[in-house]
Sequence to fold (126 residues):
Amino acid sequence: MSETDKAGAMPAIDAEMEEMKRVAAERGKAGDLYAIDLSWRMRGCRAPLPVLDLPPIDDLAGVHKAQAVVIAAVAARRLTPRDALDYSILLEHRRRAIRSLDIEARLRAIEEEDDRRARAGAAVTP
Fold:
């Protein structure tokens, strides 16, 4: 087996990173602001996004309900405003996708009606 494990990580480098995280955390606890910043960066800066029980987001009404859940979670202090922003960005992208599908369906209906009228007009013209 190569020096990488099944997940593709190199054990020696992982061990060194863990040691650097430990040292940065210790120095940060001692008041070293640079070490605190470095410790946050090495940990990916943020905790995982909290899980919310969102309703199905299959239509614009679902997006509206999901946004209300996010706002309520912030109000109840179960979600930070920054985490709410992350959810809101995801919901906005979902809203755009739903709206695009709606516009596509409407455009298709208009084009089909135009085609039908064009065929009907061609049939009447001698």
